[in-house]
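Lab notebook, design round three. We kept the backbone fixed and only want residue identities now. Task for the bench partner: fill in a sequence for the structure below.
Input structure tokens:
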């Protein structure tokens, strides 16, 4: 199978709009990706045709909606090669990490250690800080090299007998670095520690097989994967989920409730208290089925070509500093422009119809590591074209001229 970007673009209604009188060039997909018609229609269809609450009804609409919700779970499970019972729907990647941190943390004692890296998103830092504050857990951060690679030996050196968890991003949302997760998982398991991978970025750009990785927990968000907001995924090995205490209490996560005692449902429902994000799960299922119809290796090659084209276009720009040059990195360009604040760069680019992110990217420790307070970030998705890569280079060059 090959990949036809124009055909894929045609599935995204929003991409034909104009911004500030210019064709939209959307380079902020690492923050949130646009949605194909398949997702929009699946969610509308559910609301127009068959919608009710799940798991509690005895009528036709409740049964149909429950079937659609559970079919979405199966689609996610197949997508990452997990068992159906190993996929928990959450409201996002952030909630999934909080769920694991709270659950594993409940068994931690003062002095137990959690190993993270300097390139984590706040979503994979703050929940562990809660354990530091509340349980006396010690956090250790593996260093990042000047070119934006994870210092693997540095990380391995931090793993010791008190290490309970190693939690790291599979792909950095700032640097684009794809981490050597197989080596990390091996080292962590050898020390008896569990591994959580934050796959919010990686899952978008590469096939993920949680069984082949032998990872204990893998999390991601729906909205970066061309699905809706309000839905995230926690994969956990069946045995790990079974050992994890419930995160939130409420309806549908129980076995039996009495005045003096309660029992809990088995995973995954144990972790889905209350009415879950039904429409969002259906939308994510549709996004995944839509992606399944595409050649993901060809998409990865397409995105790599776009990134290379931008780098080539900006090769002579001595006013540009790129943060993150790891070999084999994904198509995320974080940069600063000499003499300009990243926010101003983003705002001027917007006048040319180019949407980029600017700020700390929820990765303040990483910003500090690279000695900047903020950066701009252009992130590429399957629907971006070579013409858009050129338009970005042109707009950025013009933007820089404001500050020269
Ligand atoms: N982890 C990474 C690497 C991310 O890029 C993001 C989102 O930017 C998150 C976690 C948090 O995801 P969400 O905000 O969808 O919960």
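Proposed sequence:
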């Amino acid at each position: 199978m090959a990949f036809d970007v124009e055909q894929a673009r045609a599935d995204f209604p929003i991409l034909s709009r104009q911004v500030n009188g210019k064709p939209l060039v959307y380079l902020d997909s690492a923050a949130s990706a646009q949605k194909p018609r398949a997702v929009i229609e699946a969610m509308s269809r559910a609301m127009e045709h068959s919608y009710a609450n799940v798991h509690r009804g005895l009528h036709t609409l409740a049964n149909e909606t429950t079937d659609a919700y559970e079919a979405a779970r199966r689609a996610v499970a197949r997508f990452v090669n997990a068992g159906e019972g190993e996929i928990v729907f959450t409201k996002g990647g952030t909630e999934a990490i909080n769920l694991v941190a709270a659950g594993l943390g409940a068994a931690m004692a003062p002095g137990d250690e959690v190993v993270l890296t300097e390139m984590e998103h706040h979503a994979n830092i703050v929940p562990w800080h809660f354990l530091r504050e509340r349980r006396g857990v010690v956090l250790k951060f593996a260093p990042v090299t000047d070119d934006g690679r994870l210092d693997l030996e540095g990380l391995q050196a931090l793993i010791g007998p008190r290490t309970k968890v190693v939690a790291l991003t599979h792909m950095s949302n700032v640097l684009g670095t794809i981490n050597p997760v197989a080596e990390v998982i091996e080292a962590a398991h050898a020390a008896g520690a569990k591994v959580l991978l934050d796959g919010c970025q990686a899952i978008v750009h590469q096939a993920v097989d949680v069984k082949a990785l032998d990872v204990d927990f893998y999390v991601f968000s729906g909205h970066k994967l061309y699905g809706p907001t309000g839905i995230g995924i926690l994969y956990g090995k069946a045995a790990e989920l079974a050992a994890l205490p419930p995160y939130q209490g409420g309806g549908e996560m129980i076995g039996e409730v009495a005045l003096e005692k309660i029992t809990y449902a088995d995973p995954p429902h144990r972790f889905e208290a209350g009415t879950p994000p039904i429409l969002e799960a259906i939308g994510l299922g549709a996004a995944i089925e839509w992606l399944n119809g595409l050649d993901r290796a060809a998409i990865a090659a397409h995105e790599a070509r776009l990134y290379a084209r931008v780098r080539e276009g900006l090769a002579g720009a001595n006013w540009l500093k790129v943060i993150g040059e790891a070999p084999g990195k994904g198509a995320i360009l974080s940069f600063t422009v000499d003499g300009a604040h990243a926010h101003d760069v983003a705002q001027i680019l917007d006048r040319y119809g180019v949407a980029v992110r600017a700020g700390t990217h929820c990765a303040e420790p990483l910003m500090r590591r690279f000695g900047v307070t903020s950066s701009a970030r252009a992130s590429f998705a399957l629907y971006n074209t070579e013409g858009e890569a050129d338009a970005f280079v042109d707009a950025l060059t013009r933007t820089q001229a404001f500050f020269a």
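Keep this in mind before ordering anything: The chain has 15 helices and 17 strands.
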